[in-house]
Task: structure prediction
Amino acid sequence: MKVKDIVNNTEEELSRDELVGKMKEGRQVDLILKEKKTDDIGYLTWDMEQWSTVDGKRFIRTYQLEGRVLSEYTSHNIHDLNAYFFPDEAAAVQLS
Result:
């Protein structure tokens, strides 16, 4: 998939596994979603996700809605990424 690197102002073709590797190298992956998402209880709605890693084993997902950073976050292990990290479904993917 096409990924815009907003730090180096380049565009790269990266796979999902390569994006996970970039997170392990200290980069943040921003997923700009095609439409707003809401959790299963209707508490949280977001249109952008920022993924990063603490130590290469624990991953943090933060949220934005209409350009506003939300205070909620979720933490995941490497195995959780298969169920929650979907860059292929995003409208755009950025490296920051």
